[in-house]
């Protein structure tokens, strides 16, 4: 099972999730071990769930059109939308207090 390390507000949370887990879906049904994940729509429209991928990006698919539209050049800085990611391998994410500005 993939290990997710999630960093937010100076805290580090670590837990295992089932393979092919979407973090926002799990948070929405209260089955996600990281209660501090910021999210809203779950459909790639608002970018509230934007996270920096600190490690494990090599296991993720290329950004989809929603991520490209919402994040723009922030993709080059390692940002992704958690609602668009299905976690199949270990990953480390950080969510900043400020949302990344889309370009």
Automatic annotation (TrEMBL):
Q: Which Gene Ontology molecular function entries are recorded, alphabetically?
A: iron-sulfur cluster binding
Q: Which InterPro entries does this entry report, sorted A to Z?
A: 2Fe-2S_ferredoxin-like_sf, 2Fe-2S_ferredoxin-type, Beta-grasp_dom_sf
| All copies of domain 2Fe-2S ferredoxin-type, residue ranges | 2-99
Organism domain of life: Bacteria
Coiled-coil regions, chain positions: none
Q: What is this protein called?
A: Ferredoxin
Q: Which organism is it from?
A: Pandoraea eparura
Organism lineage reads as: Bacteria, Pseudomonadati, Pseudomonadota, Betaproteobacteria, Burkholderiales
